[in-house]
Amino acid sequence: MDQYIIYLGFFIAAYAVIANDVIQTLGTFIASNSGVKWWLLWAFAGSILTLTLVYGWYVNVGDVSYGRLSGIPLPDSMPWWYLLAPISLLVITRFGIPVSTTFMILSVFSSGQLIEKMILKSVLGYSLAFVSAFVLYLLITKKFESPASIRLMDKKKQRPYWLVAQWFSTGFLWSQWLIQDFANIYVFLPRSLSVYELIVSLGLILLIMAYIFNVKGGKIQGIVNQKSNTQHIRSATIIDACYGLLLLFFTTINTIPMSTTWTFIGILAGREIAISYRLNRDELNKTYRIIVKDFAKVNIGLFVSILIAYLIQFLKA
């Protein structure tokens, strides 16, 4: 029975994590390349995923989580209630609510001390992302995000340069996000994968990604689409580059898992406030409401994950 729970848990977690978190890394990429065939975007993202996964598996002797599951051992027994976390995440994803997949999935496998460390690192991620994006966009908004600069950017001579830059920044960001979030996807599987387990799991993830690209990100993509200029290639490139650099920074600090969702929401929040402040201060109140709404959504995941973690501890007793 445990084997069925392990495989089913991996499948549900893989779909829910990728579907819920795709807006963080590929949302602006999908939005700004809406005219490109979905399978080309999928092939690009899938190639980077394959390289990142296989490289991590090779250099870490079968550990595709890049050490982020080293403090979270696989339970000796895995009853049905371990599926509560990925199923809850799947339901929330279907409603288009972006939540922290790290808290939703990993908290049920983690000790209370590790959960506290994950929360502290995630709060730091949100704070640093918010401040960094706010300061950056205070400096560059009038040059890169104003209506006049957007119209100038739309001239054909300038498009190819930013198109190449965006694909590079997306590839960099996607690889950094995968290093952080492979732990959420693979927590149900052994900490050291065999070649067979690696190939089968990779194939399944690529199929899930193909579906998500085919539906252009699903409902959660709306979180990105409603933000200023995110369909614009240059704007998407800057967002992706900022996010990727922040994730690289947190990757070098330690291997404690963190909520990449909180970092992403922090970037969007700081960016939106800076743009509204520089270009249209009359819209600040509206911007504040959107930011509070987004932040409330990601906290749903924290609340539900902690609730499920306590429920599982109760069922264990």
Primary descriptors:
317 residues, mainly alpha, 13 helices, 74% helix, 0% strand
Helices and strands in order, then pairings?
Blueprint: H1 2-25, H2 27-32, H3 38-59, H4 84-94, H5 101-106, H6 112-144, H7 147-153, H8 159-186, H9 195-214, H10 222-225, H11 233-253, H12 260-279, H13 284-316
User: Helix tally?
Assistant: 13
Give the integer mean of the pLDDT values: 82
Largest sheet: none
Order of helices and strands: HHHHHHHHHHHHH
Return Rg in Å.
19 Å
Helical amount among residues, as a percent range? over 70%
Number of distinct beta strands? 0
Based on CA inertia axes, which overall geometry fits? globular
Class computed from helices, strands and strand pairing: mainly alpha
Low-pLDDT runs of 5+ residues are: none
Strand content: under 5%
The end-to-end span amounts to: 20 Å
Description:
By secondary structure, this protein is mainly alpha-helical. It is 74% helix and 0% strand. The protein contains 13 helices and no strands. The protein has helices at 2-25, 27-32, 38-59, 84-94, 101-106, 112-144, 147-153, 159-186, 195-214, 222-225, 233-253, 260-279, 284-316. The model has no long low-confidence stretch (mean pLDDT 82).
Short description:
This protein is mainly α. It is 74% helix and 0% strand.
